[in-house]
Amino acid sequence: SVFDGVTEELQKWRWIPEFRMISHFHDQPGYVDALAKSIREIWDRDGEPDKLVMSFHGIPQRYYENGDPYPCMCQRTGRELREALGLDSERAIIAFQSLFGREEWVKPYTEETIEELAQAGVERVDVVCPGFTADCLETVDEIDREVREVFEEHGGKHFRYLLCLNSRDDFIEVLADVCEKNLLGWVERSYSEKELADNAQACQARYQKLKTANA
Questions:
Q1: pLDDT at 170
Q2: pLDDT, position 129
Q3: In this structure, are residues 115 and 154 in contact, taking their beta carbons and an 8 Å threshold?
Q4: Dihedral, 107, 70, 132, 97 alpha carbons, nearest 10
Q5: DSSP characters for 17-63?
Q6: Positive or negative torsion for Cα 63, 69, 74, 79
Q7: For position 173, what pLDDT does the model report?
């Protein structure tokens, strides 16, 4: 959505600036470390669950089959977070939420995973959403209400939704580090702002002159 908004605006410009998009930071060590620390703080204070479900927002399976790398990025974040917490794949499970429509989405689905855990006798489950950097009402309602209800209806006892990083200092440091790295290596500016404005004005003047000559 950011890429679409920026490029849509630039279509209205006549002098296009050099620009760079940061496409992802899902595997930045600092990001994974911040996630792990935020979880460990809660576990050290209130105890660990039987299972940790790392729930990412899903996409249709056909997007993935057509080359969208997003599910692979989720798997990478999940694996590294699992390793940072010292857990194996039995204890920390990757799943995908927000299934919509009739077509197949990437699996496993979060709601089905939670239901299966409860039916298997797992009593304590924590759910974290590593693909979200800030909490939003949609996700909080889906996970902390709808998925919680599924868990409890099928015999689960203790369900805990772990908040996103939001404005944690260590996460802000990660964002700053990513931005600083992407600000390096730029081509030296060839024109000053005044020169760009003068060139644009000169182009407009030439156009008006040609328009008058061809009238």
A1: 97
A2: 98
A3: yes
A4: -20
A5: PP-------TT-HHHHHHHHHHHHHHHHHH---SEEEEEEE--BHHH
A6: positive
A7: 97
Name the one residue in this structure whose structure tokens are 């600000």. 183
Element (H, E) at 190: none
Q: How is residue 20 written in tokens?
A: 């760079």
Burial of 72 (0-12, 13-18, 19+ CB in 10 A): exposed
What does the H/E/C string look like for 54-109? EEEECCEHHHHHCCCCHHHHHHHHHHHHHHHHCCCCCCEEEEEECCCCCCCECCCE
At 98-107, the pLDDT tens digits run 998 989 999 9
Question: Using one digit for the tens of pLDDT, what is the confidence trace for 163-174?
Answer: 999 999 999 999
Question: Given this model, what pLDDT does residue 189 score?
Answer: 67
Hey, which bits of 76-214 come out as E strands?
92-97, 124-128, 158-162
Rounded-to-integer distance, Cα 140 and Cα 136, Å: 6
The C-alpha torsion from 190 through 194 and 197 to 198, rounded to 10°, is -90
